[in-house]
């Protein structure tokens, strides 16, 4: 079993992930490729220092929060490491939210400063929350209207600050960052993560599972504001001095395949929906530079696993993690991936499956997943009851339901609040969805509980069709029969509905609660 890297008691994550490379002569290495240019570790280090000094000059102190409302760009990394280096707490959030969302996040975090894109800054200012200095990353000629009240200019802040900055004397157990949960069923909660957490996750997952090397180029479709993307594209490569290809926005599938062909990344991280849509693009694309392809956010259907391998000759590694654990704790390994399985426990973590009373369940039986590991958050900010319900001593209650086979592979069944009970028996949405997407006409599927005329729960399926698929009762009947012939009869959808798209969070998770209530 791999053990976490020993982290000294006095420790600053920015010094480890950034300054260490400069001290050891790796400053000329590329940290990021972005819009046709390269950013070296030396440039990143200097600009992070300037940003840290600028924050200090405006009263940002140790443990105070800095809200990052940015797309994937070098300024995100500069702001993140600059805040960490002075002992402040970067709080990455989605840059596409509403003013009401930002009002909540500013009020909940009590952020002392905000670094935002020009477009996001307009909505942050509209939130009307006073007390935070707002710096705007604006690129020349972007056409953004003037902002009122006028915020600080990011580049001017850096120009006026020193390039020299000593890392704050922080502890390994000081707070390094917050990660807000997706808030798919309510207001998001901030999971508090420590400086040591980033080291644990990057060693056990980034190196231990994905084998990231100094010569790698990482491409993550999952964005930096999401815990999964933050590890993929920021601190995983930074541990070994590798590079990331940063892409703002969400390119169309054909454009994305062309990007891979042109830029030659070696690791690709995305959600199942992205892989499914890439497979729909016709034509030949050279993806031979890729050696690792990782899928997260939703369960990876076996049909999609097989289709990706058949077309590109590459495994898709399904993995499972959470914001509360910082990154993954269950993963398929390169060369040992199983279609339909979420993988095995990541060495350095522990897992157990329990029933409603907390008792262990036998192999092959569905249970609630609890995990234990050094990267799990000690709690949520300002959410005592939620912390008590989720952080059970050393164990984290994930809210996911799984079963485990005799070889130690875990199989995802659904979120505990998404599971259906039909005729007194559990139905795992993921199992029915995987059966539906094996049909050649179905691109995506989601299964939720519906009520029949007697008020009893029955499976209701929502399907997105591939181009050329013909919606109608004939296909619906075919899909119902497909499930009935492959799974137990009570798992057959009573209703099959065809939709243009499924509601999702910004991180690609299906919002089944919206389907249940008919949004």
Short description:
Helices cover 30% and strands 24% of the residues. It is of the alpha/beta class and 519 residues long.
Describe the protein in words.
The protein is built from 15 helices and 26 strands. It has 3 domains: 160 residues, 3-Layer(aba) Sandwich (Rossmann fold), CATH 3.40.50.12780; 215 residues, Rossmann fold, CATH 3.40.50.12780; 98 residues, ANL, C-terminal domain (GMP Synthetase, Chain A, domain 3). With 519 residues, the chain is of the alpha/beta class. A 9-stranded mixed β-sheet has the order 2-1-11-10-12-13-14-15-16. Strands 4-3-5-6-7 form a 5-stranded parallel β-sheet, with helices on both faces.
Relative helix content: 25-40%
> What would you report as the Rg, rounded to the nearest angstrom?
23 Å
Portion of residues in beta strands equals 15-25%
Task: Give the second-level CATH assignment, the architecture of the largest domain.
Answer: 3-Layer(aba) Sandwich
| Main beta-sheet strand count, sense and barrel state | 9 strands, mixed
State the CATH topology of the largest domain. Rossmann fold
Strand order of the largest sheet: 2-1-11-10-12-13-14-15-16
Helix-and-strand structural type: alpha/beta
Distance between the termini: 46 Å
CATH class bucket of the largest domain = Alpha Beta
CA-based shape = globular
Poorly predicted runs of 5 or more residues = 139-143
Task: List the domain count as a whole number.
Answer: 3
SS elements, strand count: 26
Q: Given the structure, what is the number of helices?
A: 15
CATH superfamily of the largest domain: ANL, N-terminal domain
Provide the residue-averaged pLDDT: 91
Quaternary: single chain
């Amino acid at each position: 079993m791999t053990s976490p890297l020993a982290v000294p008691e006095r420790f600053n994550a920015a010094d480890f992930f950034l300054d260490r490379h400069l001290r050891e002569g790796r400053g000329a290495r590329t940290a990021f490729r972005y819009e046709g240019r390269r950013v070296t570790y030396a440039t990143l280090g200097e600009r992070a220092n300037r940003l840290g000094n600028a924050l200090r000059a405006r009263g940002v102190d140790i443990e105070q929060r800095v809200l990052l409302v940015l797309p994937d760009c070098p300024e995100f990394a500069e702001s993140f490491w600059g805040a960490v280096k002075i002992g402040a707490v970067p709080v990455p959030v989605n840059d596409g939210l509403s003013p009401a969302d930002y009002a909540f996040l500013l009020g909940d975090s009590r952020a002392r400063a905000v670094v935002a894109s020009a477009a996001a800054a307009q909505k942050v200012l509209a939130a009307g929350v006073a007390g935070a200095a707002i710096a705007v990353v604006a690129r020349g000629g972007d056409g953004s209207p003037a902002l009122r009240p006028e915020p600080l200019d990011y580049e001017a802040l850096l120009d006026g600050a020193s390039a020299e900055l000593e890392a704050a004397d922080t502890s390994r157990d000081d707070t390094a960052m917050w990660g807000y949960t997706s808030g798919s069923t309510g207001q998001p909660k901030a999971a508090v993560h420590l400086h040591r957490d980033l080291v644990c996750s990057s060693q056990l997952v980034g190196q231990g599972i994905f084998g990231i090397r100094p010569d790698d180029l990482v491409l993550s479709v999952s964005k930096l504001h999401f815990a999964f993307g933050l590890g993929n594209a920021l601190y995983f490569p930074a541990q070994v001095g590798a590079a990331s290809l940063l892409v703002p926005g969400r390119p169309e599938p054909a454009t994305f395949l062309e990007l891979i062909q042109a830029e030659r990344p070696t690791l690709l991280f995305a959600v199942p929906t992205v892989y499914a849509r890439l497979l729909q693009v016709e034509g030949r694309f050279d993806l031979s530079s890729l050696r690792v392809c990782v899928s997260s956010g939703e369960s990876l259907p076996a049909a999609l696993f097989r289709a990706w391998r058949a077309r590109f000759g590459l495994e898709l590694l399904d993995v499972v993690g959470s914001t509360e654990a910082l990154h993954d704790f269950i993963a398929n390994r390169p060369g040992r991936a199983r279609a339909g399985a979420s993988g095995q426990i990541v060495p350095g973590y522990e897992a157990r499956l329990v029933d409603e009373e907390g008792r262990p369940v036998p192999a092959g039986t569905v249970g609630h997943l609890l995990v234990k590991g050094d990267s799990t958050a000690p709690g949520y900010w300002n959410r005592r009851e939620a912390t008590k319900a989720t952080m059970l001593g050393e164990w984290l209650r994930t809210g996911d339901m799984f079963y485990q086979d005799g070889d130690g592979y875990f199989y995802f069944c659904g979120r505990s609040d998404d599971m259906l009970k039909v005729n007194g028996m559990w139905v795992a949405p993921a199992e029915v969805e995987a059966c539906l997407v094996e049909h050649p006409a179905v691109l995506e599927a989601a299964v939720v509980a519906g009520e029949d005329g007697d008020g009893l729960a029955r499976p209701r399926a929502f399907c997105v069709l591939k181009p050329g698929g013909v919606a109608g009762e004939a296909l619906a009947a075919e899909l119902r029969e497909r499930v009935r012939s492959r799974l137990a009869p009570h798992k057959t959808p009573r209703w099959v509905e065809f939709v243009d798209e499924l509601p999702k969070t910004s991180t690609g998770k299906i919002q089944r609660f919206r389907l249940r209530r008919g949004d």
